[in-house]
Amino acid sequence: MLYAAAAVLVLLVHLGFVLFVVFGAFLVLRRPRLLWLHLPAVAWGVYIEASGRGCPLTALENLLRLRAGLADVEGSFIEYYLRWLLYPGWLTPGIQYLLAGLVLAINLLMYVCLWRRRAWPAG
């Protein structure tokens, strides 16, 4: 039971991280000091998507699920939990590159807005 609860906690943290990577620039518009957390998160998210490597949070969730006697998550976090929401069909490398580019585009747009508002945090 403890391992299953920990797996759910990792899942929720993972989902929060993915949402922060994709939409965190909107938070940075309101709280510019989050920039220093958001930029490394975006870099990591783009790296994981573009490289095709597995995310350590997925590996941790799988370990906890297996210890709890549950089936492991097949594929990446996005493949397993969000594919049905984001797009139909199987995740392909081309779609992963598209997702990485989309994350970059959203964040670049938001940071251009930030720059124009001159809301950069004081160093």
From TrEMBL:
Name of the protein: DUF2784 domain-containing protein
UniProt KW Transmembrane keyword: yes
Transmembrane segments annotated in the record for this chain: 7-29, 94-114
InterPro entries xref list: DUF2784
Keywords: Membrane, Transmembrane, Transmembrane helix
Organism name: Massilia suwonensis
